Amino acid sequence: MAAAHFYRIGKPGEAWGEAEFSAWSADAGVVKRSYAEEVLAKLEALKERFDVEQYGALSQDAARYPLFCVKTRGWDAAKPCVLVTGGVHGYETSGVQGALLFAATKMAAFAERFNVCVCPCVSPWGYECIQRWSAKAVDPNRSFYATQAESPAEESGAVVALVAKLGGGAAGRWAMHIDLHETTDTDDSEFRPAKAARDGGALEDDGIPDGFYLVGNSEAPQPAWHGKIIDAVRAVTHIAPPDAEGKIIGAPIVQEGVVNYPTKSLFLCSSVTDAEYATTTEVYPDSTATPVTPEQCNEAQVAAVVGGLEFILAQ
Question: Could you read off the pLDDT tens digit of each residue along the chain, which spans 315 residues?
């Protein structure tokens, strides 16, 4: 008797073929919420104070999925630059809504000292369909290659091209990039099983951290900066403790609420600039031990960005 598969699509130990990808696409592409209503409409209100510019569109439906960024006006090559990205994984709601909330409520306060660019929803198809991957079953957060042409996900490639177009700030340097994410319970129930099934691998369980944490760059750690962000977020939501092995998502913690990855070699979004200060946030919206509201999740994202900027200003 054949072993039962851990995912509804595919066979144990066999990577997906055309039939499996087609089955996943039919299942995944059901629209569950509106990018136009929940993202694009909110950008309209920002046009009075900022430059709201289209930097691309998804080829599957360019009219439905235009890609926009929000920039402080008077982009000045003498100023350091800051990038905030949200919705690289479209299903992670507070990444998108937190980025929009930062632009609406806090971004103007930093316009005198920084050029700030916010890409609030990098993956609009993923946002509408509440999916981690692109419509082609590619993870955008493993797709930030050196050039747009190399990037396996067009969502990621569009950001790569935008960063190249904007350049850096003072001396061509980006000062900070914060990429806003969530870790949800569906990571365990849906997205990790889907990845393992797609690749024909075994299902691994790294657990779901109960609280907020950061993913830094192991090649350029910034413990003081990360500490400032953790302290800022602590006022809004709880910080994830390590598991029994002293790890978060399988990686050893390097300080409270922080793990480090080789972000460049993994092609993570947080590596897309040359920013000295770059990190990925991970909000946990599904906590039962310490329940949090969607509003708190969004505010935690804003607190992370503001805390990071305030640290740089204090240097």
Answer: 356 899 999 999 999 999 999 999 999 999 999 999 999 999 999 999 999 999 999 999 999 999 999 999 999 989 999 999 999 999 999 999 999 999 999 999 999 999 999 999 999 999 999 999 999 999 999 999 999 999 999 999 999 999 999 987 776 789 999 999 999 999 999 999 999 999 999 998 888 999 999 999 999 999 999 999 999 999 999 999 999 999 999 999 999 999 999 999 999 999 999 999 999 999 999 999 999 999 999 999 999 999 999 999 999
AA letter at 166:
L
Of the CATH numbers 3.30.70.270, 3.90.1150.10, 3.40.630.10, 3.30.565.10, which one belongs to the domain with range 18-314?
3.40.630.10
Q: Where are the domains of the chain?
A: 18-314
pTM: 0.97
Residues contacting residue 167 through CB under 8 Å, at least 6 positions apart: 77, 81
Distance of alpha carbon 71 from alpha carbon 170, whole angstroms:
17
How far separated are the first and last CA of the chain, in Å rounded?
65
